[in-house]
DNA sequence: CCAGACGTTGTT
DNA sequence: GTCTGG
DNA sequence: CCAGACGTTGTT
DNA sequence: GTCTGG
C-alpha cells in the first residue's frame, strides 16, 4: 500500500453525514489521488482540513532537513507505537485520511494488475493517519506532513496484496482523533486487528497505473 | 557518555 | 526529540 | 506506490 | 540503476 487512493464520489455533504463533522472544506473530486493532491483529512475532533496542504510522508518536527524522511510514506501498525519516528505523533497527532477507495497492484507471472478497493457499504474509508509540523530554522517555512498506517491484509485482500491501510470504523473515530488519549497499548490494539469483510474489490485497467491519469476510467470495472 | 539513526514496500 | 549502539 | 525520465544550449 | 512527478 502506498499513496494511491481515490476520492471518487466524495462530497462535502457525504463527509458531514458520515463523519459527524460540522464544517468541511471545498475540494475537488479525484479518481486517482496521488499523495500531494486533494486527499481530505480530519485533524483532531471537529476540525477537518484539506490534505492538499500536507506533504505525503511524515517529516518529524525534529528532522534536520525536510527530505530526510522522504520514505516514511507508511507506518506499520505492528511497530508504530515503538518507533522513534512515529512515537510522538501516535500520541497526540493522529488523523483520519478519507477516501472512497484505494488501488493495489496484484503481481502474478510478472504482470501487475491494479484493483480498486472500497467499502462494501459504499461509505468513505477512514484510514488511520499521523501528522506533524516541521519548521525550517532559517526560512521559517512550516511544512505539515502526514502518513497512513498499514497492517496485515485481511483474508479478502491477501490474494491481491500482503499489506493494506488500516481502515477505522465509526465507533473508533472519537478515540482516534482525541489528542488527549494516549494509551498506546489501546491504540495499537485498534490498529492491528482490522475488521474483516468490510471491503469489496474489482480489477481495473492499467490506466490508473500512470498517476497522471485521472477520471472515471480509473475505477471502471474490467 | 556521545554519535548517529530514526522507514516501508517490494524484490532479490 | 528520543532511542540505540559502541 | 508506479511510470517515466534520465540533457544542454540558445532562442522565443 | 536511480531519481522525480503525480
Overall description:
This protein is mainly β and 222 residues long. It has a single domain (5-219), classed as hypothetical protein yedk fold (Alpha-Beta Complex), CATH 3.90.1680. Helices cover 12% and strands 31% of the residues. It has helices at 12-19, 89-92, 173-177, 184-192; strands at residues 5-6, 40-43, 48-50, 54-56, 74-76, 94-99, 101-108, 111-119, 125-135, 142-152, 163-165, 199-203. The strands form 2 sheets. Strands 2, 3, 4, 5, 6, 9, 10 and 11 form an 8-stranded mixed sheet that branches. Strands 1-7-8-12 form a 4-stranded antiparallel sheet, with no helix packed on it. A hairpin with a 4-residue loop joins strand 2 and strand 3. The chain is globular and about 50 Å long. It binds 4 DNA strands through residues 1-4, 32-37, 57-58, 60-63, 68-76, 79, 83-88, 103-105, 107, 112, 114, 147, 150, 162-163, 208-214.
Amino acid at each position: 500500500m502506498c499513496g494511491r487512493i481515490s476520492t471518487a464520489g466524495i462530497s462535502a455533504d457525504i463527509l458531514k453525514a458520515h463523519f459527524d463533522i460540522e464544517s468541511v472544506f471545498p475540494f475537488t473530486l479525484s479518481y486517482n489521488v496521488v499523495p500531494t493532491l486533494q486527499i481530505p483529512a480530519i485533524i483532531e475532533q471537529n476540525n477537518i482540513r484539506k490534505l492538499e496542504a500536507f506533504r505525503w510522508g511524515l517529516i518529524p518536527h525534529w528532522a534536520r532537513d525536510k527530505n530526510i524522511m522522504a520514505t516514511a510514506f507508511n507506518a506499520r501498525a505492528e511497530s508504530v507505537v515503538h518507533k522513534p519516528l512515529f512515537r510522538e505523533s501516535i500520541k497526540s497527532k493522529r488523523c483520519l485520511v478519507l477516501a472512497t477507495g484505494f488501488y493495489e497492484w496484484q503481481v502474478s507471472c510478472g504482470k501487475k494488475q491494479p484493483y480498486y478497493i472500497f467499502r462494501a457499504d459504499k461509505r468513505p474509508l477512514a484510514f488511520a493517519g499521523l501528522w506533524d509540523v516541521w519548521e525550517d530554522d532559517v526560512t521559517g517555512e512550516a511544512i505539515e506532513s502526514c502518513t497512513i498506517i498499514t497492517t496485515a491484509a485481511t483474508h479478502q485482500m491477501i490474494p491481491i496484496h500482503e499489506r493494506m491501510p488500516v481502515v477505522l470504523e465509526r465507533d473508533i473515530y472519537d478515540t482516534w482523533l482525541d489528542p488527549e488519549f494516549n494509551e498506546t497499548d489501546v491504540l495499537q490494539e485498534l490498529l492491528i486487528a482490522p475488521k474483516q469483510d468490510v471491503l469489496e474489490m474489482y480489477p481495473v485497467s492499467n490506466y490508473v497505473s500512470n498517476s497522471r491519469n485521472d477520471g472515471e476510467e480509473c475505477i471502471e470495472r474490467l
